[in-house]
Amino acid sequence: MKRTNAIQRLLIAPLWASAFVLASLIVVQFAKRPAAFADEAIQGRDGFSFATVRNGLIAAVPAMPDCLWVLDNRTEMLYIYNIEDAGSMRLQIRYRENIATLFRQARGR
């Protein structure tokens, strides 16, 4: 009986070691991932800022799978676009508002 337990312990030790190695590899891989999706999603150029957003939930825009938010710094306008029909691949404007107006409305609440 003692010999059987010793053999079992001897066979189980490599399994535990490999489990720890796999767990540490998983942790290392997750550590390499970017901290937030927004780091890659936000771009800016020539007075415009672009952000891709999931479920643009604001009062004027019902839930949509993906939206493109465009901030025009020159005219101080916010535009929200989405693709309603994936087959057509055409952007459709869903919302447009002056940024100053949005801030005034937010302050009033």
Describe this structure as you would to a colleague:
By secondary structure, the chain is of the alpha+beta class. It folds into two domains: 1-33; 38-108, no CATH class. Helix content is 41%, strand content 29%. The chain is built from three helices and five strands. It has a five-stranded antiparallel beta sheet. A hairpin with a 2-residue loop joins strand 1 and strand 2 (48-54). It is elongated, with a radius of gyration of 26 Å. Mean pLDDT is 76; it is low at 35-40.
Strand and helix layout:
Elements: H1 2-32, H2 38-41, E1 43-45, E2 48-54, E3 66-72, E4 77-83, E5 91-98, H3 99-108
Antiparallel strand pairs: 1-2, 2-3, 3-4, 4-5
What is the element string, with H for helices and E for strands? HHEEEEEH
Order of strands across the widest beta sheet?
Answer: 1-2-3-4-5
Q: How would you classify the helix and strand content by structural class? A: alpha+beta
Strand-residue fraction? 25-35%
Number of helices: 3
Low-confidence stretches: 35-40
Terminus-to-terminus distance: 76 Å
Extended strand count = 5
Number of domains: 2
Average predicted local confidence, pLDDT? 76
Helical content stands at 40-55%
How large is the radius of gyration? 26 Å
Q: How would the global form be characterised?
A: elongated
Largest sheet: 5 strands, antiparallel
